[in-house]
Amino acid sequence: MKKLFAVTLGILTAFGGFVDIGDLVANALVGARFGMSLAWVVIVGVIGICLFAEMSGRIAAASQRPVFDLVRERLGPRAGLVNLGASFFINVLTLAAEIGGASLALELATGVNYLLWVPGVALVAWLVMWRVKFETMERIFGLAGLALVVFAVGLWLLGPDWGRLAHQVTHPPSDEGVPTYWYYAIALLGGAMTPYEVFFFSSGGVEERWTRKDLVTSRANVFVGFPLGGFLSLAIAGCAATVFLPVHAQVDTLGQMVLPVGLGLGQVGLALVIFGIFAATFGATLETALSSGYTLSQYFGWQWGKYVRPRQASRFHAVVLVVTIVAAALVLTTVDPIKVTEYSLVFSAAALPLTYLPVLMISNDPDYMGDQVNGRFSNALGTVYMVLLVVVAVAAIPLMLATKAGQ
Amino acid sequence: MSQKARTLHAQLHLLDRQVVHAGDGRLVCKVDDVELAAGEDGRPYATAILSGPLALGPRIGGVAGRLIVATTELFRPEERPAPQRIPMALVSEIGSAVQVSGDPPEAALERWVREHLIAPIPGSDGGGEAQDGGDEEPPAPRPSAEPEDGNRTRLAPLLGRRVLDADGAPVGQVADVQLTQDGPLLEGVQNAFQVSGLIVVPRHTGQLFGYERGPGGQAPALVKTIIRRLHRGSRYVAWPQLASPLPDTGPIRLSARLAELSSLAELYERDTAG
Questions:
Q1: What ipTM did this prediction achieve?
Q2: CB contact, 8 Å: B128 with chain A?
Q3: Which residue windows are transmembrane per the record (chain A) (predicted)?
């Protein structure tokens, strides 16, 4: 019974924690411009993140080694450093976007300009990372993120023409160019498969001292929690497709993104969705800031983690602190957080293979895995995804330049 | 030793692995490089794990690597600073992590950051679960110098060196160094890992990932095929096939001809048969 409770709690946490500012922005933008015609990308992305998160969770449980250890070990110091630079840069961008997102949610709730909220959000986030236990931290914000379910409820109450939504799945709107379509496909994939998710997931497994016995928990989180999160992403796109696509409105503020829920559910819905967005982006703020510390520490072999006292992992905590300050400063330059998100998604997509290739290799290595090596199915699917990710990585930046970032 | 001595490939199994303290699970450092000393017959054996920027920098190479080394040297008080070393005699296990016992000194940067930034912040002592013996601070960083006795070299500079056969024809470059645990006794506790062979690849085609050394369990077929294809024609050079003990610089010369060298697939078959 206790086990069942733990597994359920884990699933709910993964569900509520899945959506972050990247998923939110990408899905709302795409829903408004392309209807449901890119829904397949969300599904491809969710299957991909499930596949690689399961592998990295299994590695963490079998060998207590988190993902960036593997990156350094398999790619060597030079390629590892390139990956570290890229991942760290993307992490800081994403962190800035998440802090901005949480502040924008507070602006929607209070009417006070988001820039005034930024220092407070950053400070509270750092305090949580400094003091709160890892498990407590992950649970609270994961569960609070469940409020985003109102996107699904809102979509239901909006009473869209389901037939038309289904029709959109196979028929992209004819007034958008083909390169733009693919550009947004890549952004969506970057949103669903952001590398920090596996850095955080596997380091979290080590923080919580997973052993082989916890494989059930890990798999339940991944195979039930993540797809439910993906379903929420689709609901966000569906809301935007129902409200904005028919009137050809562009979505470029957070206020517009929550509008469909308000239309469907009224004030209560609006309050809930703003709360949900705040919880999701604040939770992701913690995840990205910690991931910056994880990647750097794991590359250089420093003591890291919240399972030891801060003074025992000084370099790790110093990185987390500095990164939080830098990201907050970046938002305070008044750069548009939504734009930052869009760019970080595309850069993420370009960096994907560097992270996922070592994961695929190590999960086949009996040195690490013992008898928990990949089966044929994981390997076959993993290989298909590697090919896909390489294609995406090569295409991402040229497409961004060619479409002027989706204009 | 009654059973077959353990064989490792330095690049694949040792370099870049996490070093963990066997007692309290503390993360110590990475295996940034391995220190070698020449044995009686000139065969090098591993004496210590080297870590820290002074070991990592030269491996990264280029501008970034030189910057790492130069910055570190700037802040080190010693005349000729050397990387931190952990004697191989303290290594108790080499697996997905390298377990060491004893009292490895703390990194200077960790201590500096703690004293000047982290410890002054209230609450730096709370949260987290104390590890076993976690209340004791690890020993202070100590100046490290190359050991006095004899010439010590490093393992990483062997990687990438050109290899010429008996006729002076190029064989390729060193991709990995095979170590066998049959060297001299280290402080009376365990045999040293001794260089027993080189893995030589014909082209500069990047890192070996272990797939070229036989199946070794499951593998994603396409990735394996691509990597094997890139490294086709890879050879194994046994220690007796070297013309002289490893030179410090310049190409490594063999006493055997290219055609006499065994391919990597044969190495694998021999390993499983033995």
A1: 0.89
A2: yes
A3: 38-60, 81-105, 111-128, 140-159, 181-201, 222-245, 265-286, 316-335, 341-362, 383-402
